[in-house]
Amino acid sequence: MLNKNIQITLASKSPRRRKLLKSLGLKFRSISVDLNEDILDGEHPILTVKRLSLHKLELAKNKIKSGIIITADTIVVLNKEIIGKPKNEKDAFNILKNLSGKTHIVYTGFAIENVDNQKKIIDYEKTKVTFRVLSDDEINEYIKSGSPMDKAGAYGIQDDYGALFVSKINGCYYNVVGLPLQKLFINLKKII
């Protein structure tokens, strides 16, 4: 479906994004880019994820000189407040307690560029996720597993516990995991 001869680089430390990209049958390499993912006061979530993805792309272009580069950034938004990764276990507890019994929105921005022809696309996906009411014991047990500490919103929908917290989603499941596969694939075909 995609040109198998073109080198694809995923510029992400996320094992979830690597697993998702691998599920498409694409051969790619992955590198990490170090970026302080600053959330700007008053910035709309769409602008935030697109800005961070583009910034990661620009950093990756310092290392990658040909082929396609893919970057992404995911955030969780509850009541117009952007929630990133938890700072510590107490923060993870507070985040999950706030998400309990409510609907939040997951935004993933992604940037892709074909370095060889300079075609670039920056886009995003949005998914609504509803949590059931969570007990303090459930939240604490999940935090003890260590799983929430590297995830926006302090949960992973693909995790054992994280999956049990979600009662409903409206939109792309893969977006909540960290990479909206359908939209990414459609856009990759546009830049080859």
From TrEMBL:
Name of this protein: dTTP/UTP pyrophosphatase
Record keywords: Cytoplasm, Hydrolase, Nucleotide metabolism
Catalytic activity: dTTP + H2O = dTMP + diphosphate + H(+); UTP + H2O = UMP + diphosphate + H(+)
GO cellular component: cytoplasm
HAMAP family the UniProt entry points to: Maf
GO biological process: nucleotide metabolic process
Membrane spanning stretches: none
Residues carrying the site annotation Important for substrate specificity: 16, 74, 158
UniProt function note: Nucleoside triphosphate pyrophosphatase that hydrolyzes dTTP and UTP. May have a dual role in cell division arrest and in preventing the incorporation of modified nucleotides into cellular nucleic acids.
Record GO terms (molecular function): nucleoside triphosphate diphosphatase activity
